[in-house]
Amino acid sequence: MSGHSPRTLDSQEKCFKIANLWLQSLRVAFEKEDAALFSECFDSRGWFRDLMTFSWDFRSLQGHHDIKKYVVKSIGDVKISDLRLDESSEGCPHSGHLGQTSIVESALWFETPRARGRGYVLIIPPDGETKPRAFAMLLMINDWKGHEELGFQRGAFEAYWEDVQSQRRHEIETNPDVLIIGGGQTGLNIAARFRQMNIKAIVIEKNARIGDNWRHRYPSLKLHTPRKHHTLLYHPYPSNWPEFTSKEKLADWLEQYAHNQELVIWLDSTIESDPTYDSVVKKWTVVVNRNGDRLTMSPTHLVMAGGFFGDPNIPKFEGQEDFEGEILHSNTFPGGDVFEGKRVVVIGAANSATDICQDLASRGATSVTMVQRSSSGVVSSNFNAILFKEVYPEWRSLEYSDLAAFALPVKGLRELIEGMQPIAQEIDKDIYQGLAKGGFMVTQNPDGSAQMPMVYERNAGYYVDFGFWRLVSNGSVKVVHGNVAKLTATSVNFDDGSHVDADAIVLATGWLPIREKYREIFGSEVIDRTSELWGIDEGGEIRTGFKPSGQPGLWYALGGFEFSRFYSKQLALFIKAQELGYYPCPNWERPSQ
Ligand SMILES: Cc1cc2nc3c(=O)[nH]c(=O)nc-3n(C[C@H](O)[C@H](O)[C@H](O)COP(=O)(O)OP(=O)(O)OC[C@H]3O[C@@H](n4cnc5c(N)ncnc54)[C@H](O)[C@@H]3O)c2cc1C
Predict the structure, then answer these.
(1) Which residue of 179, 186, 270, 517 sits with most ligand 1 atoms within 8 Å of its CB, as the best mutation to test the pocket?
(2) Residue spans of alpha helices (H) in 32-147
(3) Cβ distance 84 to 139 under 8 Å?
(4) What is the Å distance from ligand 1's center to 208 Cα?
(5) For 376, what's the count of Cα atoms within 13 Å in the CB-facing half-sphere?
């Protein structure tokens, strides 16, 4: 999607010209408050993505009709002015491509009476008769005027740092505006953002140390995404940091991040069930259990950042009490060494399952058998790296790359990836052949969009290949199919009558939805009022939270590192908007679609 780093003056001038021509049309649409003109700035299949500019919501619209229908209600009210191209070296108009199509990309700035906004546009250049038109444009509120991010703080030279910190800490601990539940990367990114936005927030984490959620996972685990993807807000990795961070390094980095960003965190802490919300004073009453001490607190907001996954999904099998070996979930897999000389069956065929099979095969298990029930989505680490470098090229900072990455709605991204499948098939042909030889079933999805929708629709059923295919191809990992019918003392038996001998069974069977964990805390009456989590909503957006949930004062936040890095800003803006009295809906109901 992105342009390439070296940009000649010629091509840059041309890009400026095209971007300016396109921008003129958009300016006229705003000046005339004309929704039809606005929609005509887009290609007939173009995408408009709006984060809080035209409504108190996140929306993705495709095509003239839907774009016009969406903006017509408020184009007269938004009062967008000073719409301009970003002229910085990273944001200025430059050439790029969408699959095989050449485009011009540019970051944008604009103003409204009370906000400063940013945007990003991907423009299809004019072609003979046609005008330049946007394939995709994002507009988003970036700051409430007078309440901008603090940025670099020099501090008074005479003040003792320790005194300033302990006073700040005391104020937050005694009277927090926001309680963030969960100190994984999501909770930490949000807390760091809130600190810069002057929102008093405390994080409570049930583990004894920040990073323990990673420390407790299986020892071979390395992130499958490159380090730029899993960079935390304001805090780049050292230049010699590995591309794929190991779980221990990540755990320690998160812990150090919390310290360096001066976040206020209570460890060994959680909230007790049944917090109550007073809709008159707009505050919660919540009991926090801090290492056995029960403290009643009254924050205005609760942000649920308890992770993507709820409890492990542990299937029950007939006869499992007769099985003589160990049965464990991937969540507690201690590493392949423990299973040296044993016959291990791994149930499941996605990321954890393939990682664990690789670990077992390389650490002396007598046999490793994977049970695959249905086809898995597969992407190679090589193709993943190509996709990633398109959006996050080396030459561009993370801030601008995130802006560009979030400009294209997820459905637009899906179309783009579908178009790239012939390239993926070519790059990964050895992998597909190797997997097929060993009987591992791969799905491309009916529309050819491969594993990508599985990430955004259910975050399950796919894996990123880091060499697993070779083990399947050469028989080091055997793949069998079917449903487990029952266990005996020493075997796993399938409904087609076949069986596999086993000394241990690893259940790489995923997790239950996190929303069910939240139901235990808040009860069904509250949770049923709130949005679903993950998957695509009716507005074409991934349900990651970071916007009104449906329950006043309750916010959800989840997703990969890029989500909290980016959307923590919108969450902070919503909270500030309530504080400033901008938000028009007194009870913070879920915005209507
Ligand atoms: C095996 C495995 C491999 C993965 N590989 C990758 C990868 O390669 N790349 C990638 O981007 N992502 C990967 N992920 C996904 C990754 O875990 C999530 O993207 C990320 O951890 C989500 O961060 P989070 O902060 O939302 O949740 P978590 O990291 O799960 O953090 C949630 C925190 O909340 C705490 N918590 C939960 N409930 C409460 C409560 N009631 N009270 C107090 N504290 C609470 C938990 O203890 C935890 O510390 C992987 C996940 C797994 C399981």
Answers:
(1) 186
(2) 35-39, 63-71
(3) no
(4) 15
(5) 29
The total number of structural domains in the chain stands at: 3
The reply to whether the predicted model has a pTM over 0.85 is yes
Residue 591 resides in a domain: no
Q: Which of 188, 189, 202, 206 to mutate to test the pocket of ligand 1 (most atoms within 8 A of CB)?
A: 206
Q: Which one, of 339, 343, 328, lies nearest residue 480 by Cα?
A: 343
Q: What atom in ligand 1 is closest to the CA of residue 186?
A: 25
**Does residue 434 belong to any structural domain of this protein?**
yes
Interval 559-579: pLDDT, tens: 999 999 999 999 999 999 999
3-state secondary structure of 294: strand
Say whether both 25 and 96 belong to one domain: yes
CA atoms of 557 and 270, how far apart (whole Å): 17
Work out the average pLDDT over 522-548. 92
Residue with the smallest CA separation from ligand 1 atom 4 is 223
Identify the residues whose C-beta falls under 6 Å from ligand 1.
Answer: 181-187, 204-207, 213, 217, 221, 223-225, 230, 270, 305-308, 351-352, 558, 560-561
DSSP H helical segments within 458-494, as ranges?
468-473
The CATH number of the domain holding residue 285 is: 3.50.50.60
User: 135-185 pLDDT, tens per residue?
Assistant: 999 999 999 999 999 876 667 777 888 888 999 999 999 999 999 999 999
- Asked if the model's pLDDT at residue 586 lies above 50, the reply is no
Does 588 have pLDDT greater than 80? no
The ligand 1 atom nearest the CA atom of 307? 27
Q: Using the 3D structure, point to which of 111, 144, 177 is the last residue of a domain.
A: 144
Q: Quick check: is 585 in a domain?
A: no
Contact between 220 and 247 under an 8 Å Cβ cutoff? The reply is no
Once rounded to an integer, what is the mean pLDDT over residues 576-589?
72
- Determine the distance separating the centroid of ligand 1 and the alpha carbon of 308, expressed in angstroms: 6
